[in-house]
């Protein structure tokens, strides 16, 4: 019998893989959890000792520190990804158990990216890496078959992040390895600069659903400041075109920090003007993770007050309490 206070389906059914330069990689139960140490050996990554340690904690009704993102969010009064997934399992009459079976894959492609976002770093962007003199293997040299030992037959969801996942063909290799694509929901986090090619669209048609989360933290000049050297005209045109495709659902993933609290209203208004876009359910807000200097960590009380007052405009959105509580809890 699982204890829902400490249990998460992703601990037993999920796998996050992050690729680095060369054959270095990390694993975790999901993209929000703390990652393992880098390793290079070939193995069935689902059985990695780091994942087994987290599973042992869950079996003993203990909270592992690797999952602090959810624990902290729940402590702040928010609804964590863990809680949402448990609810989804119940609604779909799926059993909550300790069986290790891969159903949810979170995959970070190589950190090949065409942007230098101010909230990002050389770990996730080849442009930032180049500026710091760090060499990153080109996506076209993707040779390692580190997924070959995984049983993908029971996969239900795949989430791609990067880098910019649509900038290389790495995601296509994974899509082609899925035997039952009609059973799989696809999601991508993208900066919106790369319009999908014909091969990608043809593959997507085989899957149960496709959801694109556009990382947009402002519009116009504010977008170009936060995600240089991308151009808003190109990105906004891509979003509009993709939104008009009947077989793809789009969302906005807005990362909020000290730099863009006052850009939120204009961004919501822009998305609200898109055809059939429901800002209540398709516009998501997440905060910049500490210790980044643009996070809300240790902000002065007067600054926190200004931010909370601005956010009152959005008190009817599901993410309002989480962001407000985070700012209030972090103020000095």
Q: What report would you give on this structure?
A:
The chain has helices at 9-13, 49-59, 68-75, 81-91, 126-131, 170-176, 198-204, 221-226, 232-243, 264-272, 279-282, 301-311, 320-330; strands spanning 14-19, 25-28, 104-108, 157-161, 185-190, 209-215, 249-256, 283-287. The chain folds into two domains: 1-101; 102-330, Alpha-Beta Barrel (TIM Barrel). The mean pLDDT is 92. It has 13 helices and eight strands. An eight-stranded mixed β-sheet has the order 2-1-3-4-5-6-7-8. The protein is 33% helix and 14% strand. It is an alpha/beta fold and 332 residues long.
What key attributes describe this structure?
single chain; 332 residues; alpha/beta; TIM Barrel; eight-stranded mixed sheet; 8 strands; 14% strand
Most strands sheet = 8 strands, mixed
Spatially, the strands of the biggest sheet line up as 2-1-3-4-5-6-7-8
What value does the average pLDDT take? 92
Shape: globular
- Name the CATH superfamily assignment of the largest domain: Aldolase class I
How would you summarize this macromolecular structure in one to three sentences?
The chain is an alpha/beta fold and 332 residues long. The chain has helices spanning 9-13, 49-59, 68-75, 81-91, 126-131, 170-176, 198-204, 221-226, 232-243, 264-272, 279-282, 301-311, 320-330, and strands at residues 14-19, 25-28, 104-108, 157-161, 185-190, 209-215, 249-256, 283-287.
Write the layout of secondary structure elements.
Blueprint: H1 9-13, E1 14-19, E2 25-28, H2 49-59, H3 68-75, H4 81-91, E3 104-108, H5 126-131, E4 157-161, H6 170-176, E5 185-190, H7 198-204, E6 209-215, H8 221-226, H9 232-243, E7 249-256, H10 264-272, H11 279-282, E8 283-287, H12 301-311, H13 320-330
Parallel strand pairs: 1-3, 3-4, 4-5, 5-6, 6-7, 7-8
Antiparallel strand pairs: 1-2
